[in-house]
Amino acid sequence: MQSVDLPKKINSFRAYQDTYQRSVSDPEGFWAEQAETFHWHQKWDRVLDWDFSKPKVEWFGGGTLNITENCLDRHLESRGDQTAILYEPNEPGGEVINLTYRQLHAEVCKVGNALRSLGIGKGDRICFYMPMVPELAISVLACARIGAIHSVVFAGFSAQALADRVNDANCKIIVCSDYNRRGNKNIPVKEVVDDAIALGCPSVEIVLVHKNTGETVAWNDKLDVWYHHRVDEQPLTCAPEVMNAEDVLFILYTSGSTGKPKGVVHTCGGYMVYTAYSFLNVFQYEPGDVYWCTADIGWITGHSYILYGPLLCGATTLMFEGVPTYPDASRFWQVCAKHRVNQFYTAPTAIRALMARGNKFVEGHDLSDLKVIGSVGEPINEEAWEWYHEHVGKGKVPVVDTWWQTETGGMMISGLGGLSPQKPTFAGYPLPGIQMALVDKNTGEELMGNPESGLLCVKFPWPSILRTTWGDHERCRTTYFTTVAGMYFTGDGARRDADGMYRIVGRVDDVINVSGHRMGTAEVENAINEHEGVIESAVVGYPHEIKGQGIYAYVIVADNVAHDDALREEIIAMVRQEIGPIAKPDKIQFVSELPKTRSGKIMRRILRKVAAGEVDQLGDTSTLLNPEAVQEVIDGVV
Ligand code: PRX
C-alpha cells in the first residue's frame, strides 16, 4: 500500500486566502488534489456531480476505497508503533490503554471477522449503544471495514429512543456493553437495550455484548452473544470491503424542528477527504502531537474528530471515558497535563460549567503543551471565550471556534489554529471549499455586502455534505434545500462583520441547543403529551448560564389533575422515558391556554420572550386569537 501522504496543510493566513480563492475558482481541481493523497482501489472518474434541487451530490464517483485502510493499514509502515488511540478511563488511577496503529488494526480486523462470522456484511446496519470504551472505536471501525453501515446511538438515550432509531434503520445487530461507569454513576447499558428489544425491534437478530465492568446481566440465549466469545479467536487480518465512494458509511440521528429525529446519511469518499483535510488544518496537527476531543462518539463530533479525521491523519487521538467534574472539576486539566495534550477540543457548556467552579481547578496543572484549543456545538459567549483563552490557553494559545453540524460532516467555519485572526464569539472564516452565504429571510436573496445578517446557507457542495436522510429522501429535500432555492440551509442565523468574519447567532427554527445537544421542541412536546394528564404543551429554549439554553415547557393539564410538583416530576419522568435525561425540562409552567394566532398556531415568539424574562419586548400581539393568554403566561412564569 502507498505510504502516507496527507492533504496539504495551510501554514499562514495568506496561504489560507490563496487556498480559499483556488478552492472556489476550481473546486473540482482543489478537492481532487486532496483526494489524491488517500489510498483508492480505483480512482474516481468524475470529481463532482450535483443538483441541489433533487438533492443529489456525488463526490469522486466511480472511485472505490475502504476508509479503514486509510485510517489504519496505510499507517502501518510509517507509524505502526505509534499510539493511535490513547484511552483514559473514568477513574483517575485506572489503566491507561495505548493502542498503537498496529494493535488497533489487528483489533479492528478481529472484530470485522467476528461480525462477518455472525452473518453481517456490506450494507447491513449495525447499531452501537456503548459507553466511551476502546471497543466502541474498534467495532465502529470494524463495521466500516466490512462495509456495514454504523448507526451509533448516544448511550444516554432511553430505550424508546434507541428502539425508534434501531427500527428506522432496520438494524440487524446491536453492539452494547454490560454496564458503564461514568463519574460516580453505574449505568446498566445492556438493560436499556433489553428494554428496547422488549418494546419491539423486529429486525434485530443479535445483541453483541461487550463485557466492560463484568457485572451480571440478564441473558437471552436467542439474541445475546458475548463480544469476547466471538472476537478473541479471530484472525488478525480482515480483507476490507471495497466500497464505492458514494456507498453509505454511516447514519447518525439528529433532531429537527418537526417529527422524529432523522437519520443523516454520510458516504465513504467525500467524508474521508473532508474530515481529514479539516482536522489537519483547523488543529494544525503535527506528527507526534497528542490530540484530545472530549465529545462522545455518539455525536458527530466524536465520529469526525475522535475517530475518522485524526486516524486518517495518523494522529494520536485521546479517548476519555469519564466526565469533566469527576472526581472534581480539575479532571480535564489533569488529563491534559498527564498526557501532554497538544490540541484540546471541547464544548462551551463544559467550559462554562468548569469556569463556574472557580479558577483553582485549572491552576497548577501544566498546560504548557497546548498549541490549539477548540470549541464546538453552540455559540460561545464572550465570558466563556475569555476564560478559556486566559485560564486554559494562558492568553497565548489560539482558540478555534468551529461551527458545523451533523449534516455538514465536518467543520465549516473556523479559525485555523494560530493562523487566522481571532475575535471572541466569532467562528471566523469558512474553510477552503466552503462557500457560505447569508440570505435575507423575507426576499430569499443573497446578501452580498458586509456587515450583514441573515439565514446561514451554503451555495456549493463540499465533500462531506449529507447525502440524504435515511429512508426519506423527500424529508432531506424539504428540510435543507427548499427554504432558499438552490442552497443548503443550515437552520442557523448568522452575522458577518465588516471584515467578513462570521458570528453564529443560533437556530432560527424550532430546534434548541441544550448543552451543545440538539433538541427538537416538537420532540419534547410529544414526550410531554404522552402523560395522560396533559392536554397540550409548548416547549421553548431560554438562556441558561451553563447549558447555553434550558428547556422551558408550558403545559396545559386536565382540570381534575393537581397542578403541583408531583405532576412536574411525572412529566419529567415521561420525557426521560421517551427520549432520555438530556431532554428533561428545566422549568415547567402550568397554564390554562397558550397564546395562539387566529390560524391556531402557537405564538412561540411570545413564549420565548416570557421564558427569557423579556416581557417588555413581546412585540406585536395584535394578531392573537386570545390575547388574555399572554398575561396569564407572564403572571405564572417560573
Ligand atoms: O446551531 C448550530 C450549533 O449546533 C448546531 C448543530 O448541532 P449538531 O448537528 O448536533 O452538531 C454539533 C457539533 C458539530 C448548529 O446548527 N453549533 C455548532 N457549532 C457551533 C454552533 N453554534 C455556534 N457556534 C459554533 N461553533
TrEMBL record:
Residues of the Acetyl-coenzyme A synthetase N-terminal domain: 16-71
Domain AMP-dependent synthetase/ligase, first and last residues per copy: 73-461
GO biological process: acetyl-CoA biosynthetic process from acetate
Domain of life, per lineage: Bacteria
Keyword hit for Membrane: no
Matches recorded under InterPro entries: Ac_CoA_lig, ACAS_N, AMP-bd_C, AMP-bd_C_sf, AMP-binding_CS, AMP-dep_synth/lig_dom, ANL_N_sf
Domain AMP-binding enzyme C-terminal: 523-601
GO molecular function, one term: ATP binding
EC number: 6.2.1.1
Alphabetically ordered keywords of this record: Acetylation, ATP-binding, Ligase, Nucleotide-binding
Cross-referenced NCBIfam families: Ac_CoA_lig_AcsA, PRK00174.1
PANTHER family: ACETYL-COENZYME A SYNTHETASE, ACETYL-COENZYME A SYNTHETASE 1
Family: Belongs to the ATP-dependent AMP-binding enzyme family.
Stated name of the protein: Acetate--CoA ligase
Protein's organism: Neolewinella aquimaris
Taxonomic lineage of the native organism: Bacteria, Pseudomonadati, Bacteroidota, Saprospiria, Saprospirales
